[in-house]
Amino acid sequence: MRLSIVSLLILLSVGNGFSQAALNSTGAVHEWGTFTSVAGEDGSAMAWRPLYGPSDLPCFVHHLDQQNLKLADYGTVRMETPVIYFYPLKPLTVTVHVGFPEGRVTEWYPQASAVQTAGTPNGWIEWKNVLVSRGGGTLPKLDAASHYYAARQTNSWFLQSEGEEEKLLFYRGIAYFSVDLRPVVQADGVSLHNNSTETVPSAVLFENHAGRIGYKVIHGLRDPVNIKFAELSGSVNDLRTKLAEELTEMGLYHEEARAMLETWRDSWFEEGLRVFYILPRRKVDQLLPISIEPAPEQVARVFVGRVELLSPSMRSEISAALKSGDTAMLKKYGRFLDAFLHEMGGEGMDQRARQLLNHSDRQIAVESKRVSCGQ
Question: What DSSP string describes 239-302?
């Protein structure tokens, strides 16, 4: 099994006589996750809620207040699938506390010791006395397919918390902060504005129109830049390779980058127009302050921002579907339809379309209820 550079350095320190502190540390800890938002007409993150379909999570995952309220609630950002991996030198017990000053945690696994959800924002989650070990029993897995399982495909150690075992600490949430990257759709492209004092390591303008792919990659984004729409002659596989390289350069192991891309294989590259970007590490620590005891020798935290955009062609397509009552076409826009309709101001919405949205409200209320395993 591969040893990380951090692990090798710790082993060298053992031989040099200052071993105990290194040996008793948590070793290397790696985390990845996604912040998903929808840009309004001026590029700012707008409040939205997803339509159509429940969260793609196994039923053994814990939810806030017996309901997956993230489905039905409004917020500017969906914090999706952060996972934390551990690579210690020996079995040990750790405590992990993740703050969420501008949001609340809504899903997690394995069971946490405490989750602060009262009021918004200022949420947090804490796992105490988590046993980290080489061995592992049978991890929970159901017959139904889920993107959740792809995150396990790494060499990380096994974890046990509150009697539940996993290879990672998983959590999700909903947030209310403004997004630093502000993409403004223009007639022939997108204008990207970085409202942060931090340089964005890399960004990708991506479009999938009827299965045809186009994308452009930008590095070191600090000042505003205008990006023309790419020709729809690209390859998703090529883009996946480029993204994997970017993620590993930011500190993830290769198998972690592959696990992240596999988790979002369908969603990231589905039809639509969007911007992906890697958040500066300092921004991640600000949005999700983390503390781990014993302290790790090395921590990597790599988060990807995803901003959905309403292109001129999408606006025309939605408007035509609203006028004709083409509900099948509207459903193609999935969980982002509600946001796009708000951005369009409800233009062209007839009675049939309103009935569709009213039905979706009722559907969300039903699907957001937690279903226990075995029911």
Answer: HHHHHHHHHHHTT--HHHHHHHHHHTHHHHTSSEEEEEEEPPHHHHHHHS-EEEESPPSEEEEE
Alpha carbon distance 322, 125 (integer Å) = 42
Token pair, residue 129, equals 């006395």
Closest CA to 123 of 179, 192, 182, 177: 177
Report the sign of the C-alpha dihedral through residues 353, 354, 357, 363, in that order: negative
Rounded to two decimals, the pTM is 0.88
pLDDT in tens, the chain (375 residues): 444 544 444 444 444 444 555 566 789 999 999 999 999 999 999 999 865 445 678 999 998 764 444 445 789 999 998 999 999 999 999 999 999 999 999 999 999 999 986 655 789 999 999 999 998 778 999 888 888 999 999 999 999 999 999 999 999 999 999 999 999 999 999 999 999 999 999 999 999 998 999 999 999 999 999 999 999 999 999 999 999 999 999 999 999 999 999 999 989 999 999 999 999 999 999 999 999 999 999 999 999 999 999 999 999 998 888 888 787 888 788 889 888 988 887 655 556 566 666 655 555 544 445 445 654
Domain boundaries, the chain: 5-12+29-178+277-309, 318-367
Q: Which amino acid is at 35?
A: F
Residue 90 · residue 294 · CB < 8 Å: no
Nearest of 186, 185, 210, 183 to residue 194 by alpha carbon: 183
Note whether 86 and 46 are within 8 A (CB).
Answer: no
Contacts of 119 (CB under 8 A, 6+ apart): none
Residue 169, Ramachandran bin (φ over 0: left; ψ between -120 and 50: alpha; else beta)? beta
